[in-house]
Design goal:
The chain is an alpha+beta fold. The chain has three domains: 1-145, 2-Layer Sandwich (Beta Polymerase, domain 2); 230-426, no CATH class; 435-483, no CATH class. Helices cover 53% and strands 8% of the residues. It contains 25 helices and ten strands. A hairpin with a 5-residue loop joins strand 9 and strand 10 (319-320). The longest helix is centred in the last third of the chain and has 21 residues, at 406-426. The relative contact order is 0.06.
């Protein structure tokens, strides 16, 4: 749907007409006007500012609409209500009271000049969006300059989340943040700690939707905002690595994130015929509205975060980071819990971070099928994410100790490994023994260890080492001898 046509749609006209009938001083404001001016081709969110009680007006508009719509009490204190129209695509309308005595004063209290624009609803209904813009802060000029500028010196004090939104808009629109606004972010960065983890999470996820988020993350670090949002990452800045790396931990992390974006943008060159499966996996949504792509980027940010806390220097002066992946996992879980990630998101990212060294077998000339099968069964479907993370990490390790043949071998091994995943998904192996068998025949208690044993058994079956129930029992005995004590 072309943005210029949206306001002529029957639904939009009805929303505008009812709103105007309830309050003469009603204006369309913010992002929908910005998007119209820059030619974005889809508008489904409207923001309306009214001289009256926005909360009550939103409730009445929802009641009066001839289509099915629901009212959401967005912010009762600030008199802001939301109308959600259940159609495809869904339309959301936020109606708020003026943040000041007039629409002009309201615009001065908004976040950025490119959003501090308004059009009276009468003009919108009559097709005069571009001709009748109220623009006291010259937001239209900043749109033409592709510049993000705060609307007032108090913008970040009024709502510290706006600092992160500056980078979000930069990521989405490809705009630059002006120097004065960057300085303001640096001076106010600590205020972001007053914002709830959920709000930070949602803005950060939008940043990660871009294919240029590595540059944005680097800019966030330069402004100190990243260190306030994810303090677990700050010790990696300037922390020296070893001969396998040409950059410090933070520089390596940013380069790995760039590599991840390159891999996602060029999947066929990495995974050939299985690239479509990898793409579907990347954009699948473990949590509605949050594709897995952002989780992979979080995993990259944290994969080496434990190195500053695991440094050991041996007798020859070599720097080693034994166990850094476990510390990295702990650091991620701290940050992920603070941002209120869902349990499945925490589980996926922590498994990648802790296991990111395991696919190193793919750099071997001829990795054994046994090792690859075991690795796949250890991570299941999320083995695809693990392999992508490993390749991004490997591409960013260019120290003198790195074997230049590692990368082509790893790319070839990764493709074969994902082909193995697809084959097993198409024809899954049914374990010869289930959890009840394990408990009754080996005296084991119920618990997560049963799943580990069954994964082991499936691996043995996949390799042809357990083809009947007796061989399956023998495989379990081997596992218990090596890993557990029977009860």
């Amino acid at each position: 749907m072309h943005p210029g046509h949206f306001f002529n749609e029957p639904l939009a006209q009805e929303i505008l007409r009812i709103s105007l009938s309830l309050c003469d001083e009603s204006y369309l404001v913010g992002g929908c006007i910005r998007d119209t001016l820059i030619g974005n081709h889809q508008i489904s969110d409207l923001d309306i500012a009214v001289e009256g009680d926005g909360f009550q007006i939103a409730r009445e508009v929802a009641d009066k609409l001839t289509v099915k719509a629901s009212f959401v009490a967005l912010d009762k204190d600030r008199r802001t209500g939301r109308i959600v129209v259940s159609q495809t695509p869904q339309v959301t309308v936020d109606i708020s009271s003026f943040k000041g005595p007039t629409i002009t004063q309201d615009l001065y209290h908004r976040d950025f000049t490119i959003n501090s624009v308004a059009v009276h609803l009468w003009d919108v209904m009559n097709g005069r969006v571009c001709e009748a813009i109220i623009d006291p802060l010259h937001g239209r000029e900043d749109l033409e300059r592709k510049t993000i500028r705060r609307s007032s010196p108090n913008a970040f004090i009024e709502d510290p989340l706006r600092m992160l939104r500056a980078f979000r808009f930069s990521s989405q629109l490809g705009f630059r943040i002006c120097p004065e606004t960057r300085i303001g972010i640096r001076k106010s960065a600590t205020l972001i700690q007053n914002i709830s983890g959920e709000r930070v999470r949602d803005e950060l996820e939008i940043v990660f939707r871009s294919n240029r988020s590595a540059k944005i993350i680097e800019q966030m670090a330069e402004s100190s905002l990243l260190w306030e949002i994810l303090p677990e990452l700050k010790p990696s800045r300037g922390f020296e690595q070893n001969a396998f790396h040409h950059l410090d931990v933070w520089g390596h992390t940013v380069e790995a994130l760039e590599n991840l974006e390159t891999i996602i943008d060029n999947l066929p060159s990495f995974f050939g015929p299985v690239s479509e499966k990898a793409l579907n996996y990347i954009y699948e949504q473990p949590v509605t509205g949050r594709p897995r792509k952002w989780l992979l980027k979080l995993a990259v940010l944290f994969h080496d975060s434990g190195k500053p806390f695991s440094l050991r220097v041996d007798e020859k002066g070599k720097r080693r980071f034994i166990g850094h992946e476990k510390i990295s996992k702990t650091l991620f879980l701290s940050a992920g819990t603070r941002m209120k990630l869902a349990s499945r998101e925490l589980s996926e990212v922590s498994s990648w971070v802790e296991g990111h060294m395991r696919p190193s077998i793919l750099t071997l000339e001829n990795p054994s099928q046994r090792a690859m099968v075991r690795l796949f069964h250890r991570f299941g479907t999320h083995f695809i994410g693990l392999v992508i993370l490993f390749l991004a990490d490997l591409l960013a390790a260019k120290g003198p100790a790195r074997d230049l043949a590692d990368l082509p071998r790893a790319k070839n091994g990764a493709r074969k490994a994902i082909e193995l995943v697809l084959k097993e998904e198409e024809d899954p192996i049914i374990p010869l023994l289930d959890g009840f068998d394990l408990m009754s025949e080996f005296g084991l208690d119920q618990g997560p260890h049963l799943g580990s044993i069954i994964r082991w058994l499936v691996t043995e079956q996949s390799l042809g080492l357990a083809q009947n129930r007796e061989q399956a029992r023998e495989a379990v005995r081997r596992y218990l001898t090596q890993n557990l004590s029977t009860k």
